# Entry
Amino acid sequence: MATPSSILTGLNPFQPLEAVATDDGQLFCANGIDSVRRWDGQAAAAVLAGVAAPATALVMTGAVSLSATTLVNSAGGLEPRQVVIDVASNQMFATYSHASWNRIRKGALDGSGWTDVVLSAGTPEDLAIDFASGLMYWSAPGAGRIRRATTAGASVTDLVTTTSPRGLALDLTNGFMYWVGDTGTTIKRANLNGGDQATILSGLTNAYGLAIDVTGGQLYYTTTSPAALWRVDTTGANNTQVANGFGTAVYVELDMTNRVAYVSQGNAGSIIYRCDLNGSNLSAWITGLSGPYGMKLDSSTGRMYFCAYAVNNIQRVSARPIDGKYIAYSRFLDAQGNPSALSPVSEEATIAGASQINFTSVPVPAGGSNVVKRQILRNTNGQSVTVYVDVETTDLASTSFSSTRSDSELFDQEPVALFDESGASLVNAYGIARTDKPVLFPFSGRLFLAGEVVYDKGSLVLTSGSPTVTGVQTDFVAGFVGRFLRVKGQSTSYEISAVGSATGLTLLSNYSGASGLFEYEIRSAPAERLTYYFSGSGQPTGWDTADGISVPQPGDTITGMLDAGSFLYLLLERSVYRLTYDTHPGRDGRQFLAVRRGCVNQRCWVQFGAQTFILDRQGVYLFDGGNDQDVSAPIQTLFQRPNDDGIPRINWARRRFFHACVDTAAGVVRFFVALGNCRYPQHALAFRVTTQEWSIEEYPFPVACSTNLTSTPAYPILGSSARRLLVLGGGQLDVTNGKLGSTRVPVTAATYLSVSYDSATYVIPTADVVGAPLVVTKGRGKGQLRTIVSASGGVLTVKRPFNVLPDATSEVQIGGIPWTWRSRRFYWDMTEQNTPRQCDVLFRPADGSLDLRLYESSSTTPTNAGLDLASDGVRVRRGDPDYEIDLATVDGQVQCQFDEATDRRAPGSNDFTLELRGVGATRPLRIRRLVVAGSEEGQRSGS
Amino acid sequence: MFIGRFQLGDFVTLVVWCRDSAGTPAVPTAHPQAKIYDAAGSLVQTHDLPLVDSADTTGRFRFELPLGTQYAVGYYDVKIDYTISSVVYSELMSFQVLAGGHTDGSLIAAELYNSPNSPWLVAETDRGTLLAHRNPRA
# Structure
């Protein structure tokens, strides 16, 4: 396989990762120590699964200070005077009164596409447009005209000739136009074609701007001195000053929806004022402007467009007031857009007439997190079911933001429902999965997380009366905060309050035992050990850590999960529970005790067809969802406590590295366990399902993990040392593929760490055999197994020295896998003295050899041959137990004679077994039959 | 004492059973410290040995030394020092690093993962790295 890519580093390898894929094609990994990670198969690295929520609430206050956005700058023209908009057609028009510009221009509402409509418009100032008719009207005080043209700029016509007209307003309902005339001393009216001119109000001083309330039949106009807002009926009656105190007052704009008037200060000023139509609540709505002149309100969005005359800009600002009771949250998002849960809610703020909401103390993400974006979410006035994204920013450092969105504008933003129909929280289902759960399992659209890690790597230095803990060869992680530390041999547990480094942590309370060096263990809080969690349905990165469920089995520990049928099974060390639920495990789920057998870890169960095999501390059993059937009686010795019988036992201290795999083609399930003092498993308890037979396989290298290819056949893949992946059953030889060159060679010379061969005759692909086993199959030193560490120049160097030095009589098999087979028990026929005791072995001719051994009287020591013989394919030496069978025998049949070896008069048991021993070669060996003569049952055979 | 031959990525088990001047097992005042020297006498690494089996034995310390990038083919000497009652005791051992192996160590977890684009074999090493092999096949 090609060199792999590294997708995650820095993992704590104390507990092997549990990796599972979800239906949406993502891989999730957990180990109960590091954070749960997610990988999509495309990005270079696995990332944190889920996003940590902001821990604190923000503060929200209303403000009246606004900032304007420039839509058209000075490059668009000089001395802009009045702006008119049409939201429906996304058009904006403006007059430019500078002598060198003297035109009307238009573009989109955002200022794009700014272009001329009418040139030489006669120093146009006030502009009013009948968009339905496609006609625009403007005043040209310098030219003493009111003019009209189409909105395309055609058909420019003089409608009115009068002295210095300003403040043009249209009453399209009644077909009139109104203006301030005669240099600010009158208000006049005419038909839309300029006819029937009339003065409706005279004797004014310094009148300037004009706006009309068509429905109310009233005109609002300004006077620059005194700086005041006035109101008069369109008949000219009831002339009244509405408000004053503006400094200067030029243009007026009405918001009839909210019954508000806006007054701009003009060239010399910097403020747009706002007051109710009756003049109350006068305030400086926006300050810091540069000569605000004509304005136009977009009542649908609350945006005010206006001319900033002094800087030759056309600008925009939100004009709608923010009134109501508001709450706000913040949340974080990762690069994939996965949101965190919401922050704590802010204090409810009652905001009256503010044009802007300010957010302060906005939480910032922790350094090194996966956050790339922040959002501030706010409700509309008074409601508490949905919030809307009010502010979204990639600025991860600032703590202050503002918004000018009114409620109607919030409706246009991304809505986030706070609760589902049953009242359950929706948004807070997003979050980080717990870090102390190593068992990760997908089931029915959710991810489940369970189990606990008992961390005990290294040892500690503790001082009585101090909360400080110093570790030796420890790898503490931040996720240990909240877990409990217990010194081995002591009963008190101490909660961990902080982790300073991989070798330093702090306890919540002072250590009360004696000072010294200690072994220890770190575990989850007791209540967490039997609690499991689950993600939202279809939301593998959305975890609500309040959604835990506990298994009612005190003293036990969750070690794994499996699914069978439509149920999820929770595997504990000593029991199995079945979980069933309809829609939500926490709300309508129920748990039932299934069987009183358990499971060693999440990797120690396999499914072979419809059968599930599980390894627990008692053995291996078949599990059908409601019953357990033990199948491991023949290998029970391995599960017993160690004694001095010389038989290794399973080393349960290494059980977190135990695993299982299924070999479908061979019909074998394997449980890889550590026997004796191995760090990683090097033995497999292999169960042939079809024949219900067990065998113990020993591997010359560690096998600490396994999985299966998805191709056909689905070969088991074994993970070994030097990050090697090995295919089990993919060939006859181990490590080397045996397809090229020689694998069985005679030895020409040897040292304790090497064997030499004739490289001219036997070509060995040296790069292919490093790491492969080397077995002495013939001659001196026969049976020794070593690992090749280098190969060159006709010399194979091995890792460990030979116990018996091979010589020129020896032969070695590269990549050979030693195997043994033992027959069932037979009994010699003690009455038939003349019947020969012998065994015929029938096989397919092949290269190499195998050995036959005889074991009598239940002895563990094979019976030695009683004569020297070398004929007809069998070679045996007196005093040696091996009947060496030459597999190259042409007819594939040899006969081993035991008469000289067995004592027909010997007292005691007459039972015997036969054993075949060999080493795998390039071509698979086929033993067809053993035919035994001289037994009580006559001829028996086995294969 | 020669404690064996290893390859890169293997763990070398360093064990010391601390005893006082009378030969009685005892717990030293601090964790024993192992210093590993290469064949040229240069210090390669220093490690403290953690306490083990304290319930059954007294003063026994063991450390599984990972053979990482600091090591190459050759011989190494290990000197383990510990102090009991102000007396410093030392134990010496050596090991050999042979050719072969990989500093990433052994694989301890593996999973076949069918992403929308291709199958992957994802495996974790006992040095804490997650590796991904694309399109695994025999």
About this structure: The two ends of chain A are 37 Å apart (CA to CA). Chain A touches chain B through 70 residues (CB under 8 Å).
